[in-house]
Every structure is written in C-alpha cells, then in structure tokens.
Amino acid sequence: MEMNKERIGMEYWKKIIILLCSGWVSIWIYRSALSPVYPQISASLGGNVSDTALGSISSFYFLGYVIMQIPAGFLVDKIGKKKVLIPGFIFFALAAFIISQASTISMIYLGSFIAGIGCGSFYGSAYSLTSQNIPAEKKSFSTAIVNSGSAVGSGLGMILSSYLVVQLGLPWQIMMYISMAMTLVMLGAFSIVIRSNKDDVAFNQPKEKVEEKPKEAVSMKSLLSPAMLFTYILYFATCYAYYMTVTWLPNFLGTERGFQGAAIGFSSSLVAFASIPGALFFSRLADKYMDKKVRFIVILEILAAVMLLITVQSSTSTFLMIALIMYGFLGKLAVEPIIISWLGENAPQVGIGTTLGVFNFFGMMSSVIAPTLTGSISDATGSKVMGFYIAIVLLIAGSCLFLLSNLRKANSQL
Fold first, then answer.
1. What CATH number did the domain enclosing 260 receive?
2. Cα separation of 50 and 380, whole Å?
3. How many domains does the chain have?
4. Could you write out the three-class secondary structure of 52-75?
C-alpha cells in the first residue's frame, strides 16, 4: 500500500518543479547581480577597468559553465543527479565568497570561472529530473514553470543590485553575500528533497523493467547529426541574444538612454518578468498543438529579433520599454521550453543527461562570446548598438537554418 501511494502520488514531482525553479532563481540572482554595478566594481578596482574587461566577468563565468556541460551530463547519467548537484553548488558558494573578497579583476575572473563550473552542474541534472519524474502530458508546461525561476532570479538580481548598490550606495559585494546565503539554502533543499538515482528509477518504472532494459551508449553520430547541429545553431543564436541583453542592457540603458538609479534595474527586469507569462502561454499552446512546434519556435525567434531591433531604434523611452517587454514575452525563456520539448521528441532517447549537456554546451558557447565581444565593440565605437544588431542577425539566420532543416526532413518523409 505504501509503495502504491508513492507511485501514484504527485507530491514528489511537484516538489521537483518547485526545487528546480528555486535553483534557477538562486543562479540567476548571481548571474544578473553584477552587470548593473559594473561602474561600482570598476571604481573599487581603481576606476580604470575597460568595458571589455568588465564584460569578461560574465565570459569567465560562462566559460566555466560551458566547460562543465558535457562532463556534468555524463556524470548525471553515471552517478546520479544528487551527487552532481551538491558538489556543484558547494563550488558555487565558494565562488561567491571569492568574488566578495576580490581586490583585483583577475580574482573576480577566478571566482566567476569557479561559479560557472559549479552552476554547470545544474542544467543536465535539472532537466533529467523533469524528464524522469514529470508526467508526459505536463512536461512542456512544467518545464516553463521551472524556467520561470531564471526570469524571477534575473529580475530580482537586477532590481536588488540597482536598488541596494546604485541607489542606496551599499558595497557591491552585498550581492555576493546574498548569493552565498541562497546557495547554502539550496544545498540543504537538494539534500532533503532529491532522491538517489536508484530511488528515482524505482519511482518511475517497475524494477523488473529496469533490469530487462539493455544498456546502450549515446552515439556521437546521432548527437551531431545535421538536424541536431541546426538545433544547436538555433540555440546558440537564442542564447547569444539573451545573454548579450542580460549582460549589457543595464549599462546600455544607463550610459546611452539616460536611465538612472533603480530605474535601470526595474527597466532591465521587465525582460525577465515578461518572459514568465510568455513561457507559460506558449508552452500551453505547444502542448495543445504538438505537431506545430517548429512553427512556434521559428515565429517566436523572428518576433524576438524584431523586438530587439525596435529596442535599439526607439527614440522614446515608452517605445523602448514596450519593445523590452515584448522581447521578454517572445524571447529565449518563452521559446526554450518548446525547443527542449521538440528536442525530447527528436533527439537520441538514450542518455538524456549527455544529450542535454551537448545541447546546452553548444548553446551556451554564445554566452562566453557575447559579453566580451559587445564590450569590445563598446570600447571601439563608444556604443553597444552594434552588439544588438549582431544578436538580431544571428536570431534570423538561426531560425532560417532550423526551419530549412525541418522542411527538408518533412519532405524526405513524404
């Protein structure tokens, strides 16, 4: 009776959704906390730090994050989610402490790189947990709820950083102390809530079925097939636009559009908060019209590119704010659950952690490039507008390639 109750009960998968959503909140508060206070960081280091050097703070984080993706995915499949997540978040807490004590830009780079390594444990673990524990008919919508944690964290990070540091004048290191506290809370939650790999399998499948299932290896050929490669390119473009925007939008609004104080964080956070209803709405539609996911993906990507174009072309703050809200509603966090859902239907079915690791590795490479490249463009031209144009071109090109790939696949099946 007790076993039957555990199998039928929905409580565990609901806890997983809340836990993973909270995990993204803690990660994204850290990720978004530093960009609004780049001037304060520069001042604390002597005041002569270039935009390229400041942008590299994010690039070092994402370098560690990208490096960790494939190893973390492999380890998730081999030793289990819990044994990957907990050490990863210990590294994350250590990194926040290192940054809070930094007296040089190199020390901040080191902390950022370690933070990336630590947070790199999360993606494959999180979406392996959702894949194995959430009912199939609820997966797209549940993934959108999990993803919304990144939007909440991003918005909170920008608002808190702008308010506490820019407006109240507190030391920028306070955001690192907040990140450390949240990371320690998440470590406790992971320890209590997540079951061991063995228990997780027992929850989802009868024991005899697990024993009968032959062990297989993930084929490199299937992971790098043309259809998968075009999906990786699309995700690269999607992430490039988002992480360029998240990293440099606060600075862009403050230095090129005249926003001041808490208004910078509030305006930047609109992208994050607007993405929550967008993600929930479009994931519901994608679940309802499952055969039209490619159309949803391509249309959302193109519209997001248009919103970024309006953002940099706007001559008034009203149009700029509307464009930012619409970019959030239509952009990465809205389209990502649909891409992940499409990937689950079309990617190799063996070794889901490894598959997700490779997918996120290719997508997140853009996050290493975008912050530093945009900072370099700003140093060379005095403006970050060209960085937005590059993101727009990548979104359109990636969408077209993804669409052509799927049209070719559809035609070959006729």
1. 1.20.1250.20
2. 11
3. 1
4. HHHHHHHHHHHHHHHHHHHHHHHH
What is the distance between the alpha carbons of residues 232 and 135, in angstroms, rounded to a whole number? 26
Q: Cα separation of 221 and 8, whole Å?
A: 38
Residue in the block written with tokens 């005249």: 258
This prediction's pTM: 0.73
Taking alpha carbons only, the member of 327, 304, 277 closest to residue 141 is 277
d(CA 116, CA 125): 15
pLDDT in tens, 82-95: 899 999 999 999 99
Distance CA 129, CA 132 (A): 5
Asked if 245 and 31 touch (Cβ cutoff 8 Å), the reply is no
Instruction: For residue 139, give the amino acid letter.
Output: K
Q: CA–CA separation, 180 vs 61, rounded Å?
A: 16
Three-class SS of residue 240?
Answer: helix
Q: Please enumerate in sequence order all residues whose Cβ is within 8 A of that of 208, keeping only pairs 6 or more positions apart, or say none.
A: none
The three-class DSSP label of residue 109 is helix
Separation between Cα atoms, residue 135 and residue 131, nearest integer Å: 8
Show the domain range for 154. 2-412
C-alpha dist (Å) from residue 273 to 149, 154, 326: 10, 8, 11
**Which residue's entry shows tokens 């005041």?**
47
170-229 pLDDT, tens digit per residue, is 999 999 999 999 999 999 999 998 887 555 543 444 444 434 444 445 567 767 777 788
- Three-state DSSP at 28 gives helix
AA letter at 362: F
* Tokens (6 digits) for 298: 């391509």
Locus of tokens 């299937």: 222
- 180 Cβ contact partners less than 8 Å away, ≥ 6 residues apart: 93, 96, 97, 100
| Number of residues that make up the chain | 414
